[in-house]
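Lab notebook page, bench 4
Experiment: in silico fold of construct C2
Operator: M.H.
Input chain length: 325 residues
Purpose: comparison with the prior construct
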Amino acid sequence: MFPNLKFIVAHGQMNETELENAMIAFNNGEVDLMICTTIIESGLDIPKVNTIIIEDSHKFGLSQLYQLRGRVGRSGVQAHAWLFYPNINKINDAAKQRLKAIKDFSELGSGYQLAIKDMEIRGVGSLLGEEQSGKVNAIGYDLYIEMLHEAISEISGQEIPEVNDTQIDLPINAFIPATWILNREEKLEAYKSATECSNNDELTELATDWVNRYGNLPKPVESLIMIMRLKLLAKKCGFNKIKLKKPNILIETKLKNSTFKILKSSLSSSVQNKFNFNEGEQLSIITIRGLGATEIQNQIDQLMLWFGSFEREIKNFDKELIKRE
């Protein structure tokens, strides 16, 4: 049909010299047609080539089809990519989706959309480990991205572990005197209300309600409110327990050292030197040197001050994550 048509063959089993000669001949226009394997998938740039025919295109991955299609249309001349495959009803669903995607996403700059579609079709597996398996379409791409953010945060250490309740073991009289709330059931309900407060505003409102009902707060009740405020801050910082071990204060936490370094950076250098982090398998210990040798009120005041700085730094974490999303 085309008696004067000249063609050349290129494949991966050719030696380097043969392959180079074939490519040069095609590039120089000495032949009209190149019959080849996917060896041309990337790196080949011959602007005057304007047509590619891909046999058995249903057997190729979406990224391969994208790269092969990109071998033509590299100049201002209209290019054509012909994808041949058997009867559409004889190929599997994944192949159908790949062919539809390469057809739908043909505009300039569509590589990102194709990459996302590729992940949805074949699954991305365990990106952060050796195992490559799994299906993104089983959970949806949005949930996958959310899970990926969590995994990255965990690996980088910038994650604040969830704490249900922080134990405070400090020598302070923090309780509700029986002479202030006489009814035992009311006193138990008051303790319950204090533990259920989730922020400072609720604690302030509770204290105001107690004053209205029972009179001015005794010193032990003021200390109770203060300890509850410290608990709230400690929970937000990921601290499980705070205890006195003279002359130091010890804090148990599941924080990673890399995260705590960022929190500690919010303090002045002279205060940072007081903190020592000893990472363990389950729980790590933060030692605040010398604080336990001071008066109890000073201990509480300093912890509140420092934990407040940590909380503000944690809010910066959240803002950064929102920006990335």
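Observations: Residues 167-324 form a domain with the Aspartate Aminotransferase, domain 1 fold (CATH 3.90.1150.50). Confidence is low (pLDDT under 50) at residues 127-133, 321-325.
Next step: discuss at group meeting.
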